């Protein structure tokens, strides 16, 4: 039966049930009712990903045997000669995950069984806690704990660390009184989403100190720097937060400055997680080989799907690095399912980021994991165990909106990494 099976069509859908453009790939086969679903979500460049799948990947796929996941991944990865970028990797991921979905359906097994079987009984999750004051953040952490979460990411004003109106991103002019920092801004600031770096750097230690005083050591805390400070500031912050025993400190450095990780590693034992912005194997190889990180946090569609993510997990296992796949709102429930199938089947699972799903998402993507008291559970449904309702998806048309938050600037109007 395997040899008669052929790919007949590759479709791409962009839908926004939670107001975030999600990219879904559906691979159809010549066996009636047998199709696969994959996540290709690069929400900031969704239309580009759709074009790559339709124009450059579909012609290479029609007529192929969908069971040949490895050969198809390798072939598509180099078919454009230039490779290892987020747009092409996301397109590749949509196809790759769909092929694993098909493989599971043909084998009548959930994908985790094809990847090694269950290595744990539940996948531990973390969710975000936020607020515009340290008291609000702490209350949100307590709410997360009450929901059963033992791991919580805590941010004071998302990535900004300032007050209510200054939540990380201050559009147009900054009000000096609200800056609360050393720097004044020039007149007539240019448009952008202003980030109060001084307030942020000042607020993180105060926030974590308050949380530990109020909640103690029972909750595993994560904090995301989101690459927004200079490398030496990140090294300094990683040292200053060491006493708060974080589960990990996330994205302290941008992918362009990873050489600074050596200094960070030599100066502090604060656990480090990085990787949501990674798309090239050279982003992670040296960090893992040199044990400069503790958790690899790939957005698995940005590295090309289940096939490379499984290999990355095994690579990390050889060096004592655990996984902490990216799981924000800009990943489809199909991508969430793919994360979980790998999470269940590897020995070096670390933690899984979780973003709650609204009713619309559940309507567009029926099936998927059960979430209960901070753990995710997968059923033994063949394939990825999640479906896609095209009719329901059509009701949530793409927003096609350029992100504003990535136009980050600091006090004098300088553009910074978001
Ligand atoms: C996280 C990430 C997200 C990203 C978002 C970018 O840790 O979940 O940092 O919040 O900012 O996925 O589109
Ligand atoms: Mg992050």
Describe the structure.
- The chain is α/β, with parallel strands linked by helices and 418 residues long.
- It has two domains: 2-109, Enolase-like, N-terminal domain (Enolase-like, domain 1, 2-Layer Sandwich), CATH 3.30.390; 123-382, Enolase-like C-terminal domain (TIM Barrel).
- It contains 14 helices and 16 strands.
- The strands form three sheets. Strands 4, 5, 8, 9, 10, 11, 12, 13, 14 and 15 form a ten-stranded mixed sheet that branches. A three-stranded antiparallel sheet has the order 1-2-3.
- Strand 8, helix 8 (231-240) and strand 9 (248-250) form a beta-alpha-beta unit.
- Helix 2 runs antiparallel to helix 3 (86-107), helix 5 (134-146) packs across helix 7 and helix 8 (231-240) runs parallel beside helix 9.
- The radius of gyration is 22 Å and the shape is globular.
- Residues 161-180 have low confidence and may be disordered.
- D-gluconic acid (GCO) binds at residues 224, 226, 276, 326, 328, 330, 353.
């Amino acid at each position: 039966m395997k040899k008669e099976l052929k790919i007949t069509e590759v479709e791409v859908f962009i839908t926004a049930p939670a107001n975030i453009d999600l990219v879904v790939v559906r691979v159809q086969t010549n066996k009636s009712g047998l199709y696969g679903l994959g996540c290709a979500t690069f929400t900031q460049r969704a239309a580009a990903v759709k074009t790559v799948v339709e124009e450059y990947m579909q012609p290479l796929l029609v007529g192929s045997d969908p069971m040949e996941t490895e050969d198809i991944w390798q072939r598509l990865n180099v078919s454009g000669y230039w490779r290892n970028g987020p747009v092409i990797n996301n397109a590749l991921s949509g196809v790759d995950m769909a092929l694993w979905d098909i493989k599971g359906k043909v084998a009548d097994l959930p994908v985790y069984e094809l990847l090694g079987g269950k290595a744990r009984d539940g996948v531990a999750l973390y969710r975000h806690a936020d607020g515009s004051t340290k008291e609000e953040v702490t209350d949100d952490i307590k709410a997360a704990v009450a929901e059963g979460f033992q791991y919580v990411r805590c941010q004071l004003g998302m990535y900004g660390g300032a007050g209510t109106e200054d939540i990380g991103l201050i559009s147009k002019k900054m009000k000096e009184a609200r800056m609360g920092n050393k720097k004044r801004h020039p007149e007539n600031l240019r448009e952008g989403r202003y980030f109060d770096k001084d307030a942020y750097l000042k607020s993180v230690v105060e926030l974590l100190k308050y949380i530990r005083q109020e909640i103690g050591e029972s909750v595993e805390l994560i904090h995301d720097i989101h690459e927004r400070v200079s490398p030496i500031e990140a090294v300094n912050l990683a040292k200053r937060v060491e006493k708060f025993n974080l589960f990990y400190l996330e994205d302290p450095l941008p992918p362009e400055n990873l050489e600074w990780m050596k200094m960070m590693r030599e100066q502090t034992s604060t656990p480090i997680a990085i990787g949501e912005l990674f798309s090239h194997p050279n982003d992670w190889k040296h960090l893992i080989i040199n044990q400069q990180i503790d958790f690899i946090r790939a957005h698995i569609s940005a590295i090309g799907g289940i096939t490379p993510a499984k290999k990355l997990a095994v690579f990390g296992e050889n060096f004592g690095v655990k996984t902490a796949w990216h799981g924000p709102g800009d990943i489809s429930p199909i991508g969430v399912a793919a994360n979980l199938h790998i999470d269940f089947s590897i020995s070096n699972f670390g933690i899984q980021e979780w973003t709650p799903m609204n009713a619309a998402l559940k309507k567009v993507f029926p099936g998927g994991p059960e979430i209960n008291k901070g753990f995710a559970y997968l059923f033994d449904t063949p394939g990825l165990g999640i479906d896609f309702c095209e009719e329901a998806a059509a009701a949530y048309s793409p927003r096609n909106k350029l992100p504003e938050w990535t136009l980050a600037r600091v006090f004098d109007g300088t553009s910074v990494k978001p």
